[in-house]
Amino acid sequence: MKLFRDAAITVVCLLLGIILSVQYRSVKINNTVAVYEQQRVNDLITDLLREQENNEQLQKRIDDLQKDLENLRTGTNSENETIQELRKDIEELEILAGLKTVKGAGIIVTIDSMGLSPVDDSHILTVLNELKATDVQALAVNDERIIATTEVRRAGSYMMVNGRKLLPPYIIKAIADPEKLENSLTIMAGVVDTLKYYDIKVDIKQDENVIIPAVRDDGTVLRYDLLEPVH
Amino acid sequence: MRESKGILFVTFVLLGMVLAMQSRTILLAKQQNVVGQTSVQSLSAELEHEKNEGLRLQEELHKLEEREAEIMRQISNEGNPMINELLNKRHLLQTINGFTDVEGSGVIITLDDAPARNEMDPSQLIIHDSDIINILNELRAAGAQAFAINDERIIATSKQLCAGPTILINRNRYPVPYVVKAIGDPDELFNALEQSEVVTIMRIYDIQVSIRKESDIVIPRYRAYKNTESMISGLEVVEK
């Protein structure tokens, strides 16, 4: 009788233990799944909003263009107006391509090494990428304009940018909303914190009149001779 | 005797509580899962729809732009040759800015995460935004003139952000594999990448990197539509 009761208690306790551990595990897994799911939903909502905004802008541009076309066809637009419109397009494209020296509100970031190891190209590239993520409109490192094909490569103690040698300290100029630009770098555990860890000092100054020079126009930076149009 | 009855009582009370809790979490989890899944599914469907709509609008816009240029050329041929000249200049600038499809020889790089291995930190097996940034940097240094990641044209202000297991390029999110296309001198681009630190290190971690030379690479124009004006709204031209 006593043996039977002891056995029963043992079995029950064993069961209880197993159930407890299963319970613990399933709660933990459920939590991870929930967090992951929430992240996915958030991403989807962000993407969706961006896509909708993009489509609205596209539709607007299409409507404008249709009006322009109508005017062209009916001859409402004089030749002079057409020429003026083309000139405006060209100027805008030149500014965007970095062919003009530009001025605007933004920030000036000074990067220098405090320790023994020099500033690395990856440090500069990280800063540039963060600034690009903040919808920057013009960028330069030591007054070398950053365009689509600009490289930033360390060679010993200096940096090659647009095929030109740059010496530290590296001064990055960026034009866009100064507050947003600064926050994108100083955010907790962001670029500034990371670089500090590598003994790199980052100094940020907001400026209402940041001037960024045009891309060097000697045919070595802006190259497109290998690009053929697609028909 | 009394004592052992007490122990039994407590044990069974506990067992009952645990069972109730367990069944509750299971029920709850099921419910949550259903809610989560439907919202993910409907959002994905909606996103897919918007994206397709965007592509359709892009196509329409592109046709209108071509039609406009055509009419302008006609006007130019009938009267003012200046219009033709300006049209050509505009087209060249659009090409420089990455707003036209271009073709040429170069390299195609395919990147995929390393196969999962238990003994390694998973963050070392996946491709990071810094890897992509470094690869683009090598290509730029080797004289590439146009590039795209998963057919997203890279322009001066394009960013590559790591967002968990996907990468955000221009406005779009992409999972692996990543396909980087670059137009330039194929030999120079190929050699620069093969000898680069970034590719060597990725290969040590078993990340799959394949690089091949290719002629007739087509790189599409920048798709994330924004009008030029809004991309330069904060810039004022300084006359020299």
Any overview of this molecule?
The complex is a heterodimer of chains A (231) and B (240). Chain A has 231 residues and is α+β, with helices and mostly antiparallel strands. Chain A has helices at 2-74, 79-96, 121-133, 178-186, 191-197; strands at 102-113, 138-141, 144-145, 152-155, 158-161, 164-166, 170-175, 200-212, 228-229. A five-stranded antiparallel sheet of chain A has the order 3-2-7-1-8, covered by helices on one side. Chain A has a three-stranded antiparallel sheet with strand order 4-5-6, with helices on one face. Chain A folds into two domains: 1-77; 102-212, Alpha-Beta Plaits (2-Layer Sandwich), CATH 3.30.70.1880. Chain A contains five helices and nine strands. In chain A, a hairpin with a 2-residue loop joins strand 5 (158-161) and strand 6 (164-166). The model of chain A has no long low-confidence stretch (mean pLDDT 88). Chain B is of the alpha+beta class. Chain B has two domains: 1-96; 102-219, Protein of unknown function DUF881 (Alpha-Beta Plaits, 2-Layer Sandwich), CATH 3.30.70. Chain B has six helices and nine strands, in the order ααβαββββββααβαβ. In chain B, the strands form two sheets. Chain B has a five-stranded antiparallel sheet. Chain B starts with a helix and ends with a strand. Chains A and B meet through helix 1, helix 2, strand 1, helix 3 and strand 9 of A and helix 1, helix 2, strand 1, helix 3 and strand 4 of B.
